[in-house]
Model the fold of this input.
Amino acid sequence: MVLSVNYVKIIVCDCSMEYYLQKTYYKTASLISNSSKASALLAGQTAEVSMLAFEYAKNLGLAFQLIDNVLDFTGTSASLGKGSLSDIRNGIITAPILFAIEEFPQLDAVVKRGLDNPADIDLVSF
Done:
């Protein structure tokens, strides 16, 4: 028996840098920043030093993820340990895409279509 299902794909995309940075904080930087703060507190440092450690590590975590996102475009599958362009192939909008949309606003419509079409991925990956 073959069951045919028709559906409409609805794309909900918050394509803002603010959302990207918040998501990146929760995904990557929060672990690094909170671990650094806890280490400082456990080492007997003041609350001020602990917060400095937190802020430094937060920015380090954000920078780490930004570089990882850039490498998705510039690295090879062999150097990355995963397929290049894997983020956009999975519909994940990262900083390089957001910067490209700023430079080329017509890409916004392509991204909001969902990046299911390989031609769209080629267009966005410039």
Summary: The chain is about 65% helix and 0% strand.
